[in-house]
């Protein structure tokens, strides 16, 4: 079967042949890949950045944001049946620590985890995948068009859940209500797919959402945000110090930019008792000049918390499925408009090396590659 592979550390992408996997134990599920999303991590791998090939191999099959159709299920599998749409999680545990033994490899303590398509395990940019039932989540059929957004949304679900749990653990008003986010002022920084999905999750919970980016207000991402009731802030006109005057202090910051200086500057907008959750992974090692004492003083005197959050557990994927269902009921086809570009998998090189200016999420199609999308040049 065909697969898209990268040699870690080099920017050589290639279409390779791999043996089709088969089920070898009763708790395994075999899935035919329908489509796979591409994110900044994939593009970083393609450019020679962070990635690790499986032991004994030189190349790594890419892809971690998948949607597939179950074609076979082992004897003891109960979560999915052949014909179901399903997604697999990304991280596989170290087999040694307590969180991994509790199916929480997203909180692995040893650091010896692997991630499909990223770190030491082949990913999903291929025709068939087999994995254990404990990593699979079933997807309702009506979510077929947006199910590929489960993985990036799972990252959001974990980060938002952590922010709520942190607040509930320390603030009397947050502990008293499960709806702490209702009516809260939230700033989402970076309106890529993760930022827009964060806006979606926060809006579903009744938050007042402001989205910060540096694109023109009339373009695709601010327009998508406005449709779900979010307000756009153009960071070129409102740097963080001015944003604070315009916005007032915010209760929660969801960061999805991966731009280190901005990540620090955003603390200017965080209100008293605020929580700031970071999901962007900055590249580069350039030293930064920051006002350290002022930042720490503000954190301490303001009772503020900064939380870094990465990856997601199976439960967060399930929360993502549930939120996609709610979002689909609330906003219908608007959710699918996050997927702005669809290409046949054979176009992988161009897609991984270029970023269209009007792109939100781009996906590679592994079935029906002569679909109307590809005939229209990838435009929806
Ligand atoms: C993925 C996560 C992964 C992280 C670090 C992200 O792009 O969505 O699942 O844990 O990269 O490798």
How would you characterize this protein structure?
The strands form 4 sheets. Strands 3, 5, 6, 10, 11, 18 and 19 form a 7-stranded mixed beta sheet that branches. The chain has a 6-stranded parallel beta sheet with strand order 14-13-12-15-16-17, with helices on both faces. Strands 2-1-4 form a 3-stranded antiparallel beta sheet, with no helix packed on it. The two termini are 27 Å apart. It has 380 residues and is an alpha/beta fold. It is globular. The longest helix is centred in the middle third of the chain and has 21 residues, at 150-170. The protein folds into 2 domains: 2-139 and 335-376, Alpha-Beta Complex (Quinone Oxidoreductase, Chain A, domain 1); 153-308, Rossmann fold. A hairpin with a 6-residue loop joins β1 (2-6) and β2 (13-17). The chain has helices at 40-46, 98-101, 150-170, 172-175, 193-204, 220-227, 240-247, 260-265, 292-301, 314-331, 348-353, 372-375, and strands at residues 2-6, 13-17, 28-38, 60-61, 65-73, 85-88, 91-92, 114-116, 120-121, 128-132, 136-139, 185-189, 208-213, 231-234, 250-255, 270-278, 305-308, 339-344, 361-365. The chain binds beta-D-glucopyranose. Beta-D-glucopyranose is lined by residues 39, 41, 64, 90-91, 115, 118, 151, 155, 310-311. Beta-D-glucopyranose binds next to α3.
């Amino acid at each position: 079967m065909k697969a898209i592979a990268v040699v870690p550390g080099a920017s050589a992408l290639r279409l390779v042949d791999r043996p089709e996997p088969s089920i070898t134990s009763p708790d395994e599920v075999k899935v035919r890949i329908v489509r796979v999303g591409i994110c900044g991590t994939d593009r970083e791998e393609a450019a020679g950045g962070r990635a690790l090939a499986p032991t004994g191999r030189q190349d790594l099959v890419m892809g971690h944001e998948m949607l597939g159709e179950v074609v076979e299920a082992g004897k003891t599998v109960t979560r999915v049946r052949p014909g179901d749409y399903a997604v697999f999680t990304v991280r596989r545990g170290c087999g040694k620590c307590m969180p991994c033994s509790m199916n929480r490899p997203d909180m692995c303590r040893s650091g010896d985890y692997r991630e499909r398509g990223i770190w030491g395990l082949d990913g999903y940019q291929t025709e068939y995948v087999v994995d254990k039932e404990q990593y699979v989540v079933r997807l309702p059929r009506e979510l077929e068009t947006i199910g590929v957004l489960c993985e990036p949304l799972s990252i959001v679900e974990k980060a938002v859940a952590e922010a709520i749990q942190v607040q509930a653990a320390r603030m009397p008003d947050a502990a008293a209500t499960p709806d702490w986010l209702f009516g809260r002022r939230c700033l989402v920084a970076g309106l890529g797919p993760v930022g827009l999905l964060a806006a979606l999750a926060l809006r579903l919970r009744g938050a007042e959402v402001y989205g910060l980016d540096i694109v023109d207000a009339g373009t695709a991402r601010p327009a998508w945000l406005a449709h779900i009731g979010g307000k756009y802030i153009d960071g070129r006109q409102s740097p963080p110090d001015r944003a604070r005057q315009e916005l007032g202090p915010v209760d929660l910051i969801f960061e999805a930019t991966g731009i280190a200086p901005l990540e620090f500057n955003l603390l200017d907008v965080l209100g008293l008792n605020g929580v700031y959750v970071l999901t962007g992974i900055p590249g580069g090692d350039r030293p930064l000049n920051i006002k350290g004492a002022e930042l720490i003083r503000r954190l301490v005197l303001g009772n503020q918390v900064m939380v870094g959050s990465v990856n997601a557990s199976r439960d967060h994927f399930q929360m993502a499925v549930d939120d996609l269902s709610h979002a689909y009921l609330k906003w219908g086809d608007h959710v699918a408009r996050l997927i702005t570009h669809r290409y046949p998998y054979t176009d992988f090189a161009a897609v991984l090396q270029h970023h269209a200016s009007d792109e939100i999420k781009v996906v590679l199609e592994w079935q029906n590659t002569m679909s109307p999308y590809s005939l229209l040049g990838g435009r929806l």
